[in-house]
Specification:
elongated
Length: about 200
């Protein structure tokens, strides 16, 4: 089958929504959300524009679906916080761990990236990003409360700030292992805030 015939077959075949989301993820990661047009996503998928808009009425709908997909896939920094096979303290410290050798290039936090590209706090994308960052604090607060911290929300905010800052600096500096600096600070915070660790 020729390349043209294969592409035409893909356009008619099932799985259009998944191909659209996969194409959007690649394009958003490499060139940013606002720099990626809907027509470019359709071409990369490949699907017709009609199929694209049948699945995602607006670009905002596509961006939110992309971010929701990241959450469901476990591909975000926050996903380690819900792993019950790891003790609570280690889950927190894994926020600052080195990515796997085969991981994609460091792109920072997708929710911070999305909020920066949609700065209006009332926009649907910015609101969704904010919800996820608040959820991260809730997850950390639950873990540090389980460990005996008397002020879990304050400590959770400090740890989340460290994690977000480390992810941003890792992306800007192109240094995947940058989290080691934040991990050292996180260990000090945990030692000072948790009973019986000082």
């Amino acid at each position: 089958m020729s390349t043209t015939a294969a592409t035409a077959s893909q356009r008619r075949g099932r799985g259009g929504r998944e191909r659209i989301l996969a194409a959007a993820a690649r394009l958003f990661a490499t060139q940013g959300i606002n720099a990626t047009g809907m027509e470019q996503v359709a071409e990369e998928a490949p699907v017709s524009k009609r199929t694209l808009y049948a699945h995602f009425r607006t670009k905002n709908d596509l961006v939110i679906a992309h971010l929701q997909g990241l959450v469901l896939s476990g591909a975000t920094l926050e996903s380690v916080l819900t792993r019950e096979d790891i003790p609570p303290r280690e889950r927190i410290l894994k926020l600052f761990g080195r990515p796997a050798a085969d991981a994609a290039p460091v792109r920072g936090c997708p929710f911070i990236d999305a909020a920066a590209e949609f700065p209006d706090p009332e926009s649907a994308v910015h609101s969704y990003a904010r919800e996820q960052k608040l959820r991260m604090v809730q997850l950390i607060a639950a873990l540090v409360a389980e460990l005996g911290c008397r002020e879990p929300v304050a400590l959770a905010e400090q740890l989340a700030t460290l994690a977000d800052g480390a992810a941003s600096r890792a992306m800007v500096l192109g240094e995947a292992d940058y989290g080691r600096y934040a991990r050292a600070a996180a260990e000090v915070l945990l030692e000072q805030a948790l009973p019986g660790t000082t």
